[in-house]
Structures are given as structure tokens and as C-alpha cells.
Specification:
With 276 residues, the protein is mainly beta. The chain is 11% helix and 41% strand.
């Protein structure tokens, strides 16, 4: 092999490596190497939001086509409230106004100790951001304004994972409600991952079916069989029911009520929001 041929072979080999590494990065960013492809759903008072694997985050209103809000390529984690859709990319936190679609970078970690970040939304609209130092296995917690990204305060310095306290607004199921449900049942959530408030009814999932319980009488009845595929999670606004199963886009049901307003069944509106 002469020098000219060898040079061409080397150039082609390097080009192939660069192409494959670039393609691998794109495939990784789009989630092709991640385990599972479950759809994630969050309900706000404005719309239902869900992530279609390797595609993007969509908003949905019953009877209308889903609207794509942002590509999965730019999203590593996301959450949404009544104001904006928030998403993390690298060490930066971004927001997308759900009314006008305006995007902005809210916060970027410039601390050299920070290897990666995570975040969670608080009920007051502020954002808890965790700055991780994976080498030292420590984390620093800060509070960021959800509107302009201003750092409101440092909740901790860099401390050990095991020494941190929780500063999020996770919803705790009230014990009096929890005692009503059968063992192994899971709650159906409402707006923003809070317990559904459809007085006096509690919706829950159990034994491949959707159930409703009257907390005043303790009576429970089956609303809908969920066929052979187990529903992983669900949420409702008291009028529509969004059910998420493995490897399927969410199914949407309208809640059927009798003349007294008692939920008695579910009518299928969309078997899958994302049509194949």
C-alpha cells in the first residue's frame, strides 16, 4: 500500500469514526439507548402534557390534535405548571411559556464543582435546583425564581447525599384517605401531581381496573376494566381521565356521571393520543 492510498484509508477511517460517534450522540440524546419507552403525563388546568419517547413533549386538549412543544433532543428532564414548561439540558435550566411559546434559559450552573443538576417545581412557582458533585458525592441545593431565574437563596452548601434534607413540595397522601384503599392500590392524581379533589370521590387503580370510591360511605365500584395491559399511572380533572400504559401513548376517557353527579363509568374518547 503506497503512501497516497494509506492516507486515503486513514482519512476515511477517521471520518467514519467521527460520523458514528456523532450519530451515537444523536441517538443517545433522542433516547434510543434508554431503557423503556413509557409515556409521561402531567395534568394542569390549561392542558394535559406528555412526553412521546424519542420525539418530544406535547400538550393535549380532548377532541383536538396534540401540539408538539419541544423536541426530545433538547430535554433531559422536564416538568410543567400553570405558567410554563421547564426542562433541563446539561447543566442549564430552561423554560417555555405555555401561552406564547417563548423560550428562555433560566439558570446555568457555572460552579466548577458541579457535574450535573436536577430540579423540582414548588407550589409557589419557585424551583429547587440540586447541584451535584459526582466525584465527592455531594450536593448543593439552591432556590431559583421560576420567572426570571434569579437565585433567591442557597438552601445548603455542598453536603453529603445522606445529609441533605428534602425541600420539595411532594404531596403526602392523607392517612384517612389511604386507609380506604385496598392493599396494592394506587391513587389517580389530579392537577400538578396532587391528589385528585373530586369531592367526595377518590379514583384509584387496582387489579387491572379503574375504580371509584365514595369516601363518605366507603363504597367502591369498578369504573372500567383496563384490559390485559396494566395502567402504570393516571390523572383526572374530574371530567376526563388520562391513563398511561406500557409502550402506548395515553388513552383518554370521559367520566360518565348520573343525574346526581356520581361517577358511574368511563367512555373512551381517544384510545391513543398519538396515532400510529
Amino acid at each position: 500500500m503506497n503512501k497516497r492510498t494509506l492516507k486515503i484509508v486513514v482519512i476515511l477511517a477517521v471520518s467514519l469514526i467521527l460520523f458514528l460517534s456523532g450519530s451515537g450522540y444523536v441517538l443517545f440524546r433522542l433516547g434510543y439507548f434508554q431503557a423503556g419507552n413509557e409515556y409521561i403525563g402531567i395534568l394542569t388546568k390549561k392542558a394535559y402534557y406528555f412526553e412521546a419517547p424519542r420525539d418530544g413533549i406535547y400538550s393535549y386538549h380532548p377532541g383536538k390534535e396534540p401540539e408538539k412543544r419541544i423536541s426530545s433532543f433538547w430535554v433531559e428532564d422536564w416538568d410543567v405548571n400553570e405558567t410554563a414548561l421547564y426542562y433541563k439540558y446539561g447543566r442549564s435550566l430552561h423554560s417555555l411559556d405555555t401561552e406564547n411559546g417563548r423560550k428562555r434559559k433560566l439558570y446555568e450552573a457555572t460552579d466548577s464543582r458541579c457535574s450535573h443538576i436536577s430540579f423540582s417545581l414548588r407550589e409557589d412557582g419557585d424551583i429547587l435546583v440540586n447541584l451535584y458533585d459526582k466525584d465527592e458525592e455531594t450536593v448543593k441545593k439552591i432556590l431559583v425564581d421560576g420567572q426570571d431565574g434569579e437565585i433567591l437563596c442557597n438552601l445548603t452548601g455542598y453536603v453529603s447525599y445522606s445529609d441533605t434534607e428534602l425541600y420539595d413540595d411532594s404531596v403526602d397522601v392523607r392517612l384517612d384517605e389511604q386507609s380506604f384503599l385496598p392493599e396494592g392500590a394506587s391513587y389517580v392524581l389530579g392537577y400538578g401531581d396532587t391528589i385528585t379533589d373530586v369531592q367526595p370521590y377518590i379514583f384509584y387503580l387496582s387489579d387491572y381496573a379503574i375504580w371509584c370510591l365514595d369516601r363518605e360511605t366507603g363504597e367502591a365500584w369498578k369504573m372500567q376494566e383496563s384490559d390485559s395491559e396494566r395502567i402504570q399511572s393516571a390523572c383526572t380533572d374530574g371530567e376526563y381521565f388520562y391513563a398511561i400504559s406500557i409502550a402506548k401513548s395515553p388513552s383518554v376517557y370521559q367520566i360518565i356521571k348520573n343525574q346526581d353527579g356520581r361517577p358511574v363509568g368511563l367512555q373512551l374518547i381517544d384510545e391513543e393520543i398519538m396515532k400510529k
